[in-house]
Amino acid sequence: MESNKYIIRVFDEVGGEAAISVSDGDALFKKIDKALMQEVVVVLDFQNINFIITAFLNAAIGQLYSKYTSEQLESKLKLENVKSEDVSLFKLVIERAKEYFANKEDFDNSVNEVLSND
Question: What global pTM score does this model have?
Fold first, then answer.
């Protein structure tokens, strides 16, 4: 680990070219969170990742917004080698996470209300 930069190769973390497992995403979240708590810049390298789904990204990146502000993540979390066709997935996950964690109580209340009406 460089003094202020920590590179995480997603390919190595998920054991292949597909980032699809929520459990892999959770494990990655924990690794990112631990590094961010040490005040380092985290670089997520998506080189050789050819298949990625939002469930993985929600687990790995989305839940970071429950602990960190957008400003903190913009300055401390960097993405590298994201395929152009996957950029929209990252944007979607980040926007949803920001909305959810900004209004978590209202969202949870709405869900509970809908579920209790069945």
Answer: 0.85
